[in-house]
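Late entry, evening session. Most of the bench is empty. Finally got around to the prediction I had been postponing all week. Sequence below, unchanged from the version circulated by S.P.
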Amino acid sequence: MERLIEILEEVKEDVDFSVETALIDDGILDSFDILQIISALNEEYDISIPASEIVPANFNSAQGLYDMVQRLLED
């Protein structure tokens, strides 16, 4: 989880990803940020995030992103 938060902070420095739980709902992340996060996660974890996983529940918090990455790593 620590590395994931580092990746997120590289994309958007001014957000406290350890506590924020409404990144999409509150408009903190825009579509460009999401694309950058997807690209960074794909590269860092050697995964491919399918379109079906690009939903607010997976991107509203670092925990949601972490859970999604773990699921994709298991597949």
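Two things to note before I forget:
Residues 2-74 form a domain with the Non-ribosomal Peptide Synthetase Peptidyl Carrier Protein; Chain A fold (CATH 1.10.1200.10).
The chain has one domain: 2-74.
Will write this up properly tomorrow.
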